[in-house]
Automatic annotation (TrEMBL):
It comes from the Eukaryota. Keywords: Coiled coil. This is DUF38 domain-containing protein. The lineage of its organism: Eukaryota, Metazoa, Ecdysozoa, Nematoda, Chromadorea. Residues 33-60 form a coiled coil. It comes from Panagrolaimus superbus.
Amino acid sequence: MFPHQALDDVYQFYERYSTSAPSTALVKRYQEMKKLYAEIEAVEDDVEQWLAKVMEVDDKQFIIHNIEYRLGGNLLDLKLWKLYLEYLRKNDPKEMLQAYSKYCRFFIDDKKMLEEYKHATAKFGPINVSWKNPFDFEKLESQNIEPIFDLFDEGYKPTEKISFIRKQPCRYFFNTENNYIRQNFSLPNTVMHYIHQTANHVALQKLYKSCKYFFAKKSTPICYKFDYTCSPRMQRIAFREQSIDIRMDQNGIFKLQNLFIANSLSFYYLPEIKYQTLSTIIQSFERCEPKHLTIENQNLTFAEFKFLAGHGNIETLHFKNVRITNDNREIVPLEDIVVKLPKVYELCLDNILCTSQTSSSLLQIKFKNKFKELKLHNVNDKLELNDFYTFLWKNVNRKTCCTFSCSEEASEEFILEFQRQYCCLLDFHFDDSENGKPMINIFSAAEYELFALN
């Protein structure tokens, strides 16, 4: 508030509540400030003239408030910053050091000003700051003057009594039962409920950071990367930021609940242990929307597969020794699996089942990416090859690596035709050898077994 505006308020007070006229000194001050306010407005575009007029008020608090208000509107005004520092140097050196600390953290490349700040601190300091990253010549506001020694430093030789600093334990904890407070938002509760229930992991994390109310309403910890490895005789859970690395054997007890798997899920299990651990762990997931999915040596129901991949955002999927079965415990056809993966560009599946409709169904799927890697194992001879190679031509490029192995039941005629049409695909659609061709390998069951061993 400018001085003449404050005096206007005083005038209104006198008009309403006073029976006597304002003093001559007050009237004179009001007229001077009103005139000065007009002069300040007239030179507002020239920062030097503006500051000179503001300083004519001869009120330190008024001057500092107006300078900082103007800086808040444009923090890149270097001229005003330096004029402000110069004013404080003459009128309040301690406050000048605080302004220097702010300037040097906003303009981190201005080494010259940092040196000026250091010299000013040596002359007018010391300075206590609240920043978490103090310069070597600054001190934290909460810094304890008692010496702290590293008892694990081999070169440490005590020369005086050691002081042990005991941190005060946190007195208040967020508790959904005792100190949870219902929040009121400008949007209707139904809208806020919809946002909370449908938010992806990025939006949900921002909601959690903005207010603990959202986490209290629905406690769903977000896990960016979930890695589980079967490790005999080991029980360990390691947390790294928002990632979890688990090493357990088949007898381990998984106690985490309501996880939101956001980016990556990997599950490695020993083939000799017939234990459906993943199926039990899935029950602990509230939501599962990974982009990268890797599973080894597990059996999944189709419902479990849809929970893991049915959101449609899978980009890489690597299954090894994984069977996906329906309610009748029959292997789910390949097309029913792939249709859930429109964004996939790395796809590795074994124990697949091809039907007479598989190739035509694959042709109908609109993939958003070309395959970088495609591996299908145990392909049976019901696969219609003409449509399948049309599917490949549409969805591979010159850098794609494809590996197909046929099942033991596949006939020799089917395997030979599979390999012949692969040669036709390369000759007709990728005949420009200078630009490269996709790498396609086709094996019988026996050949692939030898290939995998090597």
